Amino acid sequence: MRTGNHERRRMTLPRASLYGFILLAVASWGFIVFGDGDGFRGLFAPGAWGNGVRFLESLLGLDSDGTPAYLQGSRWLETGRLAAETLAMSLLAIGIAGVGAFATLLMAARNVSDGTLGGRPSNIGRAAYHLTRGSYTFSRGVPELVLAMIIVFFLSPGILPGAVALGLHNYGIVGKLTAEVVENLDPAPARALRASGAGNMQVLLYAILPQAIPQFITYLLYRWEVIIRTTVVVGFVSAGGLGREFTLRLSWFHYTDVTLLIIWYLLLVAGVDLLSAFMRRAARAE
Questions:
Q1: Tell me, what's the pLDDT at 240?
Q2: For residue 136, what pLDDT is reported?
Q3: For the chain, how many structural domains are there in total?
Q4: Domain containing residue 217: CATH number
């Protein structure tokens, strides 16, 4: 009996990870609450809430005699073009990510490179597997903002640098997720086709893609929802769209213009979420 209790109390890696997480969480909150900086106590500083109220009044235009930007039709039209650019940036980005992930998902699947799906294992397949997985790790490991800052030096400011940065970052994410879908496929259909003499293209078209495509589309649409939210961030480095205008208006203290841009941004996010949900339901129905 003692041996059983000892086995249950033995420190394992998951248990040690849990204890470490709890310790870090407690230490982090202790630093926030009791640290020397502003931290949590800054929320209760005498001027904190007053500054927040004054900033909200500026966003609503209550401290100005002029007409707020969000009540001017001409400003809606001007910023609407920026919203269209932002939407175009997100579509171009998800297109880049989707094409790249789709073109490499088989090379990144271990069961393809080692022959589990009925093919022949080869050193070339193993090398392609590690190189592709390495490209996934690199692309998703570098933040979109950093990629945009680098790319904008090679391309003129606009939506293209932002789209390329977002596409490269999400290429690694969508590719990794879809490759893992392929790794978890039922190998029986592919092996049956191989046994009947089918070639690589036939196995791909009739055994692998029919199982992987629905999940691939789902992941792609989920990432599109994330990308439309991230466009404003890459816009901070002159990557075009609403993000660039947001930075400029905030720098010029045109707070009602900032409010209008936020409204457009929320409309874009809500629209993309609704459209993505509809398309995911349609993909599952198929």
A1: 78
A2: 96
A3: 1
A4: 1.10.3720.10
User: pLDDT tens-digit profile of 168-200?
Assistant: 999 999 999 999 999 888 888 888 887 888 777
- Position 174 in a domain: yes
Say if 96 falls within a structural domain. yes
Lowest mean pLDDT among 18-22, 191-195, 236-240: 236-240
Give this prediction's pTM.
0.82
> How does pLDDT run across 117-152, given as a tens digit for each residue?
766 777 888 899 999 999 999 999 999 989 988 998
Range of the structural domain that residue 133 is part of: 76-285
Q: How far apart are the C-alpha atoms of 103 and 275, rounded to whole Å?
A: 25
Is it the case that residue 113 has pLDDT exceeding 90? Answer: no
Torsion of CA 145, 147, 153, 155, to 10 degrees: -100
Please state, as a whole number, how many other Cβ atoms lie within 10 Å of the Cβ of residue 79: 22
Task: Return left, alpha or beta for 253; rule: phi > 0 is left, psi -120 to 50 is alpha, else beta.
Answer: left
Give Cα 220 to chain centroid, integer Å.
Answer: 10
DSSP H or E stretch at residue 133? helix 123-141
pLDDT at 1 over 50: no
